From TrEMBL, chain A:
InterPro entries: CobW/HypB/UreG_nucleotide-bd (IPR003495), P-loop_NTPase (IPR027417), UreG (IPR004400). GO terms for cellular component: cytoplasm. GO terms for biological process: urea catabolic process. GTP binds at residues 15-22. This is Urease accessory protein UreG.
Length: 239, 250
């Protein structure tokens, strides 16, 4: 049985392909590895590309970074069947006990992919400005209800014609007051904010005051009911 | 439920050895897709036959323990198994602990028939995933096997069959069907396969699956377990462990 004394804060990092999940993890590791005992689980299309990138970045002991195969089903691996990831997290916690935080990186998927609360305690959803300024407005379960939404690569905004402030405002409107962070790894102030969020979330989870929130696989949506009335609602669970 | 690929036991990470076989040339890069059906048939005659037989015998041991007459022996009469994966002697009559010892012997017999340590590792990891699920869904399994330990999947499946009342035929069929389904599902990710063709291959292997079921369902003794192997697949599996670009664990 799993020993609960070695239970870490499990933080999921989700978001579409290429938005900067791996480099966000690298940033967290380099900023916090002196203060927190960290571990990383990566999911990737081809096994260990992300794990290799992180190992070669030299931000963490390579032994503490493990890759899990997903059989080309990155969505399933964090949502419908978390077993292989959960086993990997627990083994990492056991082998390097005690760890403070284990970061679980989703294989890049689409806007609907979010972590099951059975796998992580909290999750970050990562978008980037290069993906288009309207993505945040389009919404989705991760955008609307992840514990933190990151709008990444803000330094690229002038080159892709995106108004960062507007994108953040759209995101905040979609999130009902939950935090949004405009991030660039070249902007130390934003990196400091990210670090602060991870630290404070770690403390909240440790204190036992945090209840994992399930963003759910389905965003609030609208359809016509039996009486022809237009109704808008969310589902607590998958269809 | 056992035959359903949606059961949360990490099935999506498995290709039943198809990925390393494709890498070694199976399917000829998409020019010879029916290789996939032939591959699944070869497994039914070799590796999967052994696994189904192991599951049948593990089921027999579990059922025998559950129905054994109470003899009133003291629990300390039966020695501990010495294997941390097997549940300790904590039952009044010692039947469960005797069964656990026999299951340890079945697992050893399976390991002796599975020469690739990569395949053994993959099967035990899958067994662990099944055990975790069984601990929640069919907790009687924990009378025989300890939760979250690495026991070969066919042994775990056999014990689940035993505590849930599946027949020997049903568990053999489940193991065989699951293996073919794993192969054809993975082929959709690895080769340019039409999903309807994949379903046709599965249907076309019906007779092979039933032949396997007929051959292994009556087994009750460890010594009678078949020992058919596929050395080339063992080599492929070994190579896969060192391969960087993997979609599937095994």
């Amino acid at each position: 049985m799993h020993d609960h004394s070695t239970r870490s804060f499990r933080l999921g990092i989700a978001g579409p392909v290429g938005t900067g999940k791996s480099s966000l993890i690298a940033t967290v590791c380099s900023e916090l590895s002196a203060e927190l005992r960290l571990g990383v689980i990566t999911n990737d299309i081809y096994t260990d590309e992300d794990a290799r990138l992180l190992r070669s970045a030299g931000v963490l002991d390579p032994e503490r970074i493990r890759a899990v195969e997903t059989g080309a089903c990155p969505h399933t691996a964090i949502r419908d069947d978390v077993t292989p990831n959960l086993i990997a997290v627990e083994d990492l916690e056991r082998d390097f006990a005690p760890l403070d935080v284990v970061l679980v990186e989703s294989g890049g998927d689409n806007l609907t992919a979010t972590f099951s609360p059975a796998l992580v305690d909290a999750q970050v959803f990562v978008l980037d400005v290069a993906g288009g300024g309207d993505v945040a407005r389009k919404g989705g379960p991760g955008i609307a209800r992840a514990d933190l939404l990151v709008v990444n690569k803000t330094d690229l905004a002038p080159y892709v014609g995106v108004d960062v402030e507007q994108m953040v405002t759209d995101a905040e409107a979609a999130r009902d007051g939950k935090p949004v962070l405009a991030l660039s790894r070249n902007d130390p102030a934003s990196v400091a904010q990210l670090k602060e969020w991870v630290l404070s979330m770690t403390n909240v989870v440790r204190s036992g005051e945090h209840t994992p929130v399930d963003p759910g696989p389905v965003a609030p949506h609208t359809h016509v009911d039996e009486d022809g009335q237009l109704i808008t609602h969310t589902h607590a669970h998958a269809h | 439920m056992l035959a359903d690929g949606r059961l949360p036991t990490g099935g999506h990470t498995q290709s039943a050895g198809l990925e390393p076989a494709v890498r070694a040339g199976l399917g000829a890069g998409g020019d010879r897709l029916t290789d996939v059906a032939g591959y699944a048939r070869d497994r039914l005659r070799t590796i999967t036959r052994v696994e189904a037989a192991v599951a049948v015998v593990a089921r027999h041991i579990t059922v025998s323990a559950a129905t054994a007459p109470r003899r009133g022996s003291r629990p300390d009469k039966w020695p501990a198994t010495g294997d941390p994966r097997l549940s300790p002697a904590d039952d009044a009559t010692g039947t469960a602990s005797r069964a656990a010892m026999s299951l340890g012997m079945v697992e050893a017999a399976w390991a002796a028939r599975t020469p690739s340590q990569v395949m053994r590792g993959a099967a035990r990891r899958q067994g662990r995933a099944y055990l975790r699920l069984a601990a929640r869904v069919w907790p009687d399994v924990l009378r025989y096997l300890r939760n979250d330990t690495e026991v070969a999947r066919p042994v775990v499946v056999g014990v689940i069959a035993g505590v849930t009342g599946l027949s020997a035929e049903q568990v053999a069929r489940s193991v065989a069907h699951d293996d073919v389904q794993t192969v054809v599902s993975a082929s959709l990710k690895l080769l340019p396969v039409d999903p309807a063709d994949a379903a046709s291959w599965l249907a076309g292997l019906h007779d092979d699956i039933e032949r396997l079921v007929t051959d292994v369902a009556s087994l009750t003794e460890i010594d009678k377990l078949p020992a058919s192997g596929a050395p080339l697949l063992d080599v492929f599996a070994q190579n896969h462990a060192d391969e960087r670009m993997r979609l599937f664990h095994a």
